Each structure stands twice: as structure tokens, then as C-alpha cells.
TrEMBL record:
Keyword Transferase: yes
Protein name stated in the entry: Lauroyl acyltransferase
Organism of origin: Corynebacterium lactis RW2-5
GO cellular component: plasma membrane
Subcellular location: Cell inner membrane
Any one of the GO BP annotations: glycolipid biosynthetic process
GO function terms (MF aspect): acyltransferase activity
Cross-referenced InterPro entries: LipA_acyltrans
Keyword entries, A-Z: Acyltransferase, Cell inner membrane, Cell membrane, Membrane, Transferase
Keyword Secreted recorded: no
Length: 297
């Protein structure tokens, strides 16, 4: 865990809350931890829930924001809090047994092994759904270390906590911003037959390509398609979701990249995301403006 620091701003206090969550939820009984997460979700939704979350779900359901069922908004917040509860507890619960449970609930996982057996690199691109850290635990247990990037959060102590946490699980973490470009290292890992995992729905630096997503225009990052095309690695969208007492982990068929435009490739990734999110809308943790029309407001 990071060194002690004295909070001076609201962001510092939020960071301190996250770090305290790691310490606290990692040691309380499992059922109590989940109940606390549900209580926070209920509190957040007591006034109807986050407006942007409701607006995003409306796109998925093809309805107005007012027509989104309150039960779905509440289920979505419970799913989001479940992610954080599990993330905070993961250092204490990660085990071969956990990886086996993830394997038993997975679909298409053999596609990663097939690529590795052929000596090919693999780019796994996933949305902010379910528990991507849990999926990483499975990946490390079956295929060893993989490489990913992380947004450099502020304050720095919070970013350091996230990096330390994920590195303790066997993830190689490269900063997305605030240093040298991660692309050369990612290309090197893929050319060596390694695995790179990238979140591919949010266009954090506004340099992505336009795609159609649930009938509206947005932009998605081009990095996964570009890396796969430049290195010859296999590109596989991944779907993540929650079950009542387990997790959904789906590796889609390879998206062809050779000789294709980057926007075409990214659109194929978006279509895979659509299928998974439509099947499990509550597990897509998108509380920020996502579609172009919303980001312009």
C-alpha cells in the first residue's frame, strides 16, 4: 500500500476513502462486505439514481430515460458496488479455486490457449462490465503475466495504490498518461507472443474513431485494433458479467484485422460489446457521458 499522506482536497479525501476500503473490506466477513455494498447502492439510488447512468441505460433499452425501470438502475448500482467490494477483497480471496470457478463459468476461453499454442500474441479488448480484475486473476492463473494500461489517477497516491494492487495479482501495469508512450512496450509484448488486455469502450483521450453503438454515434479507442494490426496479434473482444454467485467471462471469436480500416475493426468490436451489454445491461458500469451527443453538452 502507498505511504501515508495528509488529505488537503476533496480528491485527497476520496483517495483516502478508497485506500481505507481496501484495508477494511479485505478483512470483514464476505456477506457483510456485500451487504455494505448493497447499502451504498441503495443510498445512491434513493433519489432515482445517477441521471447519466439512467441516460446510458436508456440507449441500451432503446427508450426514454424516464422509461428506464428503477429496478434496473438499482441493479446497475448494486453491480457497480459489487465490483468495488470484490476489487477491495481480491488480494485476500485470489486463489486457484477462484480461478477454477471462473474457468467453469467461461465461454470461448480456449481461444486464448489456441493463439498461445500457435505463438501468436493476443489483444483482449473489453468494456467496463462485470469484474475485469477477476478476469485478470483467471488469466494469470492459466497463462501467466499479461500487460495492461491504467489511467493515471489523481492524486498520485491513489494511482500508486491501484498499480500496487494489480501488480500484486500478477498484472503488468503501464501508465496511460504522464510518461512515455505505452505503445512500444505493448507492441514488444505482443511480438513476443504475450497477452495485452485493454479496456475498449471509453475514449479517454478523445482520439478514437466513430462507431455506431446502440443506434447512436460515439467514439471508441483505436489502440486495440492498431496494436493487433501492427503486430499480427489476434484480436478478441471479451464480455464480462455477474451471476448471483459467480461471474460471466466470454471470449468472442477473433476479429479480422489484416487489410482492414481501423474504424471497421473497431466497429466489429463495438458490435460484440453491444451483444454482451444488451444481455447484461446492469453490469455495464458506465456512469459517465458516453455517447457523442452527451459529451457535447
Amino acid at each position: 500500500m502507498p505511504r501515508l499522506f495528509f488529505p488537503r482536497t476533496k480528491k485527497d479525501l476520496i483517495a483516502l476513502g478508497y485506500i481505507a476500503g481496501w484495508k477494511f473490506l479485505g478483512f470483514v466477513p464476505e456477506k457483510l462486505a456485500y451487504r455494505l455494498g448493497d447499502a451504498v447502492a441503495a443510498r445512491v439510488c434513493s433519489g432515482g439514481g445517477p441521471a447519466q447512468l439512467r441516460a446510458n441505460l436508456a440507449r441500451v433499452l432503446s427508450c426514454s430515460a424516464e422509461a428506464v425501470p428503477q429496478s434496473l438502475v438499482e441493479a446497475s448500482m448494486r453491480s457497480y458496488m459489487r465490483y468495488w467490494v470484490e476489487a477491495f477483497r481480491l488480494p485476500t480471496i485470489a486463489s486457484p479455486r477462484l480461478a477454477e470457478a471462473l474457468e467453469n463459468s467461461g465461454h470461448g476461453l480456449e481461444r486464448i490457449g489456441e493463439a498461445r499454442a500457435a505463438g501468436d500474441g493476443v489483444v483482449l479488448v473489453l468494456p467496463h462490465s462485470g469484474n475485469w480484475d477477476m478476469a485478470g486473476v483467471w488469466l494469470v492463473s492459466r497463462h501467466g503475466e499479461f500487460t495492461t494500461v491504467a489511467e493515471r489517477l489523481k492524486p498520485e497516491v491513489l494511482y500508486d495504490a491501484f498499480v500496487d494492487f494489480r501488480q500484486s495479482l500478477g498484472f503488468e501495469i503501464l501508465p496511460l498518461t504522464g510518461g512515455e508512450s505505452a505503445l512500444p512496450t505493448l507492441r514488444e509484448r505482443l511480438k513476443d507472443g504475450g497477452i495485452v488486455c485493454l479496456l475498449g469502450d471509453r475514449d479517454l483521450n478523445s482520439s478514437g474513431v466513430e462507431v455506431a453503438f446502440f443506434g447512436e454515434t460515439t467514439t471508441m479507442p483505436v489502440g486495440p485494433a492498431l496494436l493487433a494490426q501492427q503486430t499480427g496479434a489476434r484480436l478478441h473482444p471479451v464480455g464480462l458479467s455477474f451471476y448471483r454467485e459467480g461471474w460471466g467471462l466470454k471470449v468472442h471469436r477473433q476479429v479480422p484485422t489484416e487489410g482492414r480500416e481501423l474504424d471497421e475493426i473497431t466497429q466489429d468490436v463495438a458490435r460484440a460489446f453491444e451483444k454482451d451489454i444488451a444481455a447484461h445491461p446492469a453490469d455495464w458500469h458506465m456512469l459517465q457521458p458516453f455517447w457523442t451527443a452527451d459529451r457535447r453538452k
